[in-house]
Design a protein that fits this description.
The chain has one domain: Class I glutamine amidotransferase (GATase) domain (Rossmann fold). The strands form 3 sheets. It has a 9-stranded mixed beta sheet, with helices on both faces. It is α/β, with parallel strands linked by helices and about 250 residues long. The protein has helices at about 35-45, 60-65, 95-110, 120-130, 140, 170-175, 230-245; strands spanning about 5-10, 10-15, 30-35, 50, 70, 115-120, 135, 160-165, 175-180, 185-190, 195-200, 205-210, 215-220. The protein is globular, with a radius of gyration of 17 Å. Helix 3 packs across helix 4.
Amino acid sequence: MPRPLIALSTSELHEPHHTRQVQQTLTHRRDLALGMDYPHTIAQAGGVPVVVPPSEAVDIDALAERVDGLCLSGGPDIDPSVYGAQPHPALGPTDPEVDRFEVALLRAAQARDLPILCLCRGMQTLNVARGGTLIQDLPSQRPSSVSHRQEGSGTQPTHRVRIEAGSVLATALQAVEVEVNTFHHQAVDRLGEGLRPVAWTPDDLIEGIEDPDQRFLVGVQWHAESLRALAEQRALFAAFTAAAVHRPSMVS
């Protein structure tokens, strides 16, 4: 079997005034940014990562026809206008055009039943794409003793997550309880159509969602790519890329 092509989104765009300019580099108007843990983990799991810029120049349908899976990465807050809400005073920086691009990319992948893995912001995008809403500011809207934005390295888990036995996520992780990292400001509020919650934090915040009617459509609130040193997180990516290898269009 050939190694599957995995479209890898990035919603991180850096403006020149946010970066340090040096004489030896070109000055760009806008730069893409993506943590290297994402492509490294996909490659380690047997996939070939293809980074997709959030741009109107990308033919989304043509891309969806050529790739074998989609991974939505983490990033900044999602603009509430995308799901018909007013902004909370503590809302972070947003880019509605990028949000709409990722929603369109996700919908194109779903229409073709491509295997999809959504990480952190990616899970929130999945929920919004299905008509769901988000908690915009966890500290004020869902006060808790559980911190959802750790200060340490993403390679270090900081809280446990319980997972529904028999779910696609539990099967992929080969576990019903795992230790995860946490770097999010927003979270799932009202669930989107066809999605079901399958993982929760100790304070009952939704940490995993999936659609059992698609071959592989899983979202997790943690940054699994940064935890690839842990066997269960590698198993999640392995299950995702295995589903991409065996998608109908690749079976002879």
